[in-house]
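Quick review question:
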């Protein structure tokens, strides 16, 4: 038995990992197994699939088993391998930050529909987390300058690390604050945010991957889920220039209430709800009036 385990075929490891994860009822067991194994071997998924007849030694096998067992317990793949793709770029992540999600890319698309690549503008990203939004804007708009805030110093360490990877530390300033109250009023052309919008009452129904591993405070926005928005919107009005733009991510369950709040404010105009690629309400857009 010991001699057999000294060299083991990758296709047998992949098959074993798939069965373990399938029986553990994790999301996308085949994809999870491929991503984790390729990460452990420091090769791409394609390289893994092209080398399934190759063998590995016991040390690597032991490492893979450990990582697969973490996934079987529900730990998201992004936290296991320490990275997640967003808008075609790879971001370092850990359990101090939310995992970037494809639907949030709608927020970036919305900005790109408003500003030209060469435009100069100053933006504020509230609740930056991994920095995926601020850094993507910085990369897509090379003349932009941004401030990114987060209540968590641990999240800001992650965001700063990502900013260094993309050489944006000279154009992005990171501030540890819940909402950047010390920032000068009427300064920004654009305010962005992906705030917490899960309701406390809905939190127990989330998947264990989200509920047990992602940061609670970055997820839950109050009992109903929309309670954070009024203060976010009021603050954004103060820091935006006249005609400045507010773009925030929303959940379809809170979209109606948030849009109503903006319309009742009577100092915002061109209020729109923008759908993501799956047809769900995802982004709220508004311009600051007088």
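Suggested answer, residue by residue:
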């Amino acid at each position: 038995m010991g001699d057999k385990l000294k060299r083991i075929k990758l296709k047998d490891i992949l098959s074993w990992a798939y069965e373990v994860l399938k029986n553990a009822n994790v999301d996308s067991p085949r994809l999870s197994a491929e991503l984790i194994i390729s990460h452990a071997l420091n090769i791409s998924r394609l390289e893994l699939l092209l080398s399934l007849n190759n063998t590995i030694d016991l040390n690597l096998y032991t490492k893979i088993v450990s990582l697969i067992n973490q996934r079987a317990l529900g730990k998201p793949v992004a936290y296991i391998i320490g990275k997640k793709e967003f808008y075609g770029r790879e971001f370092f992540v850990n359990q101090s930050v939310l995992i970037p999600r494809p639907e949030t890319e709608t927020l970036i698309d919305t900005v790109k529909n408003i500003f030209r690549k060469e435009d100069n503008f100053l933006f504020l990203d509230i609740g930056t987390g991994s920095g995926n939004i601020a850094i993507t804007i910085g990369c897509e708009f090379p003349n932009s300058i941004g401030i990114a805030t987060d209540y968590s110093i641990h999240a800001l360490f992650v965001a700063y690390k990502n900013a260094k990877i993309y050489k944006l530390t000279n154009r992005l300033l990171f501030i540890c604050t819940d909402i950047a109250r010390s920032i000068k009023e009427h300064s920004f052309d654009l305010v962005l945010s992906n705030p917490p919008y899960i309701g406390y009452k809905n939190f127990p129904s989330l998947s264990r991957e989200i509920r047990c591993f992602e940061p609670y405070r970055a997820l839950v926005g109050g009992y109903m889920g929309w309670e954070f928005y009024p203060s976010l919107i009021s603050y954004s009005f103060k820091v935006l220039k006249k005609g400045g733009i507010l773009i925030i991510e929303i959940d379809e369950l809170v979209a109606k209430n948030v849009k109503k709040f903006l319309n009742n404010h009577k100092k915002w105009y061109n209020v729109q709800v923008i759908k993501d690629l799956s047809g769900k309400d995802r982004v709220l857009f508004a311009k600051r009036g007088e």
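Why it works: The chain has two domains: 2-81, 95-288. The chain has a mean pLDDT of 93.
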